[in-house]
Amino acid sequence: MKKILFPTDFSDVSKNAFIYALKLADAVNAEIVTLHVYEADSPAYLDASIYLQEIYEYEELSEFENYKDAVPLLRNIAQANDLGHIQISNVLIQGSLVAEVLQISKKEKIDFIVMGTKGATHLRQIFLGTTLTKIMDESKITVLGIPENCEYKPINRILFTTKYHFDDIDALQKTQNLAKVLNAHIDCLNIKPPHKVHNDDFAADFKNVFNNSDVTFHSVLSDDTEGAILDFIQRNSINMIAVHIKHKGFFEKLFQVSLSKKLAVNINIPFLSVK
Questions:
Q1: Which of 19, 91, 141, 253 has the fewest CB atoms nearer than 10 Å to its CB?
Q2: CA end-to-end span of the chain, whole Å?
Q3: What is the CATH number of the domain that holds 69?
Q4: Angle formed by the axes of helices 12-28 and 52-80, to 10°?
Q5: pLDDT tens across the length of the chain (275 residues)
């Protein structure tokens, strides 16, 4: 049985993302491991060393009480969505969120990470400078991020962005494996600067590899990566975007030359990072 790690702070954003975790677990026959990580606050005054143990014990007790009350709410969400049969285990731990997610992912042999992200409405904001970005960069497994205002809809059309690099083939294959389980179509999008000469040999290789697959290939000439992606999402009713994460700092490099129109279009679809 596969495993899905679901980091949660029990906020509304997190509870909304949990529905996607449940639906994914049901589709791929997985159990869910919920993870709540908390950090103990250090006292702001210097003469409190004799009280440190009491302070930390109190904080741990408070976290445990809050955690004990919040965990049943996740089970209620499962029941409300007819997914009460999904196996769910729960972990409460003190530490750093990113470090603990990475450690548990390795220790428990996690297959997917699913988590919500708050307060980002544009691709640049979503992919730069968030905890989710750090986890996507550092993790060696597939991560599914759920934006704050993303209401659950069945995934039937996935956008995969590519520059037709050879190592994108494996990432597209992994995306296709998930798409098959979800009964989803894949649109493979290549965005090229309009004033350069392009060699499309690798594009032909891609099309040959996925010749008999439910994948459609598209090329768009644009200097604005973000704008082109957003426009494609709107025009084609995309309800998930997948990106191959090649290295740390990938998102910074992806958007560093973007002209970003700062379109007033909210990103209300899940995004998948594939390694």
A1: 253
A2: 21
A3: 3.40.50.620
A4: 60
A5: 999 999 998 888 888 899 999 999 999 999 999 998 877 654 444 444 444 444 344 445 455 556 677 888 899 999 999 999 999 999 888 888 899 999 999 999 999 999 987 754 444 444 444 788 788 888 889 999 888 888 899 999 999 988 888 889 999 999 999 999 999 999 999 988 887 766 666 788 888 888 888 999 998 998 887 788 888 988 999 999 998 887 445 455 444 433 333 333 346 788 898 98
The Cα 187–Cα 242 span in angstroms is 10
On whether the CB atoms of residues 131 and 120 are closer than 8 A, the answer is no
The Cα–Cα gap between 84 and 79 comes to 5
| Partners of 2 in the β-ladder | 30
Answer whether 188's CB lies under 8 Å from 217's CB.
Answer: yes
In order of 167, 168, 180, 227, 272, the CA distances from 214 in angstroms are 20, 17, 9, 25, 18
Residue 9: Cβ-neighbour burial (10 angstroms; 0-12, 13-18, 19+): middle
* Neighbouring residues of 270: CB distance < 8 A, sequence distance ≥ 6: 20, 144, 145, 146, 147, 150, 155, 239, 240, 241
The answer on 87 and 159 residing in a single domain is no
Shared domain check, 159 and 51: no
Ordered alpha helix ranges (H), 184-258: 201-209, 225-235, 250-255
Residue 104 contacts residue 110 (beta carbons within 8 Å)? yes
Label the pairing between strands 271-274 and 142-147.
antiparallel
At residue 157, the 3 state secondary structure works out as strand
- Where does a domain end: 91, 118, 145? 118
pTM of the model: 0.82
